[in-house]
Amino acid sequence: MAVKRFAGTCLLLASLPAAGQGNEPLYAKNLSPVSGLFGLPSQRFAGTGPAGALDINLHTSIANNYVAEFRGDEQVNLDGETLRMALEFRYALADNWDLQLEVPWLDHSGGFLDATIDGWHDFWGMSDGGRSRVERDLLDFSYAGPDARFVLLDDASGVGDSTLTLSWQFARDDIFAASVAAGYKFATGDEDDFLGSGEDDVYLVVRFSGDHRNDDVPLRWHGQAGYLDAGESDLLGKAQEQDLWFVGLTMDWVLNPRWSLIGQLDAHAAPMNSEITSLGDEAIMLTAGARWRFAPDWAVDFSVVEDVQVETAPDVTFQASLRYRVN
C-alpha cells in the first residue's frame, strides 16, 4: 500500500498545472529488469541553455513486466512491477556546455497493474503471453543459464545508479542544434536488489534537434545515436554484453503554444548473449504522449511506452515528467 500511495503522489505532482522546457523529447527508459541495469541515456534536446541556466526535472515511471520463456538450457521469468523516480539537474556551465546529474530511486514489487492489463487484453481479444495463467501481482525476476543466474523474489527499493553527463553544443542556429555528450554511470545502486548493475558504465552520444514549424508542418524533431561501454556485472556473468549501441528519434507536433503531441522510437542492443528474446534481442520501444506548457518556465509530460519488439521491454510503462527552468 505504501508503494501505491507513493506512486500516486508522484503522478499527482506531475499533473499539477505546470509545464517546463517546451522543446524536449519525452523521457523514456527501458525498465525491463535486465536492460534497466545499464546507464543507457534517454533522449534530450541537443542544445544547451544560456550560461547559468538551471533546469530541474522530475520523472516518474511505472513499468509492468511479464516474460516467461524456456529456450535450450536457459529459462527466464520476469514478472513484477517497477516504479522509478528520477530527479534530474541540468546546469549550463557556459553558452555551449552543460552538466547533467540524474539520481534515480526504484521500487520493485508485485505491483497493482496486472488486473488492468489482463482486462485490456480480454477487451480487445489480444494474446497476453500466458500472464493470465499465473497469480497476479507477484514479484519474480529470475534467470538460469550456463553462464549466469539471478533471482529476486522479495520487494526491494532504494537509490539506483546515478549518472553524470557533460554535453558540448558544437552547432546552433535558428532551426538546428547539434551536440556531443559523454556520460558516466556510478554504481550507487544495490545490485542484489536489482537497483543497479554493481559496475560503472561510460557512454558517448551525438544528438541533433530541429525546429521546422510553419503553417503547413508545425514540427520539431530530435535524434540521438551512441555507444555504451558497460562494466562487468556479477549479476549477468559471462552472458552479459558490454558493447551496447543505442539510437532514438522523436517527432513533436506543436498544436499551439501550450500543447504538443509527441511520438518517438528508441532502440538499443541486446543486454545479454542469449537465445531468449527478452534478453538476447535488440529492444525497440514506441513512446506516445502529450506536453502541456502551462507557463514559460514550466512543462508537464504524460506518455505511454510500449514494446514494439515484443518482450524486449516492459509490456507497458506509464510515464510523467515535471519540468522547470530556474530563472
Write structural notes for this entry.
This protein has 327 residues and is mainly beta. Helix content is 9%, strand content 50%. It has three helices and 15 strands. A twelve-stranded antiparallel beta barrel has the order 1-2-3-7-8-9-10-11-12-13-14-15. Residues 1-20 have low confidence and may be disordered.
Spatially, the strands of the biggest sheet line up as 1-2-3-7-8-9-10-11-12-13-14-15
Quickly give the structural class: mainly beta
Task: Tell me the Rg in angstroms.
Answer: 19 Å
Beta-strand content bin? over 45%
Label the overall shape: globular
Q: For the report, how would you describe the main beta sheet?
A: 12 strands, antiparallel, barrel
Tally of individual helices: 3
Question: Unreliable segments (pLDDT under 50, ≥5 consecutive)?
Answer: 1-20
The percent of residues in helical segments reads: under 10%
Which whole number gives the mean pLDDT? 90
Which terms summarize this structure?
327 residues, mainly beta, twelve-stranded antiparallel barrel, 3 helices, 15 strands, 9% helix, disordered N terminus
SSE topology sketch:
Blueprint: H1 2-14, E1 54-71, E2 74-94, E3 97-109, H2 114-124, E4 140-144, E5 149-152, E6 156-159, E7 163-172, E8 176-185, E9 201-212, E10 219-230, E11 243-254, E12 259-268, H3 277-280, E13 283-295, E14 298-307, E15 316-326
Antiparallel strand pairs: 1-2, 1-15, 2-3, 2-4, 3-6, 3-7, 4-5, 7-8, 8-9, 9-10, 10-11, 11-12, 12-13, 13-14, 14-15
Overview in brief:
This protein is mostly beta strands and 327 residues long.
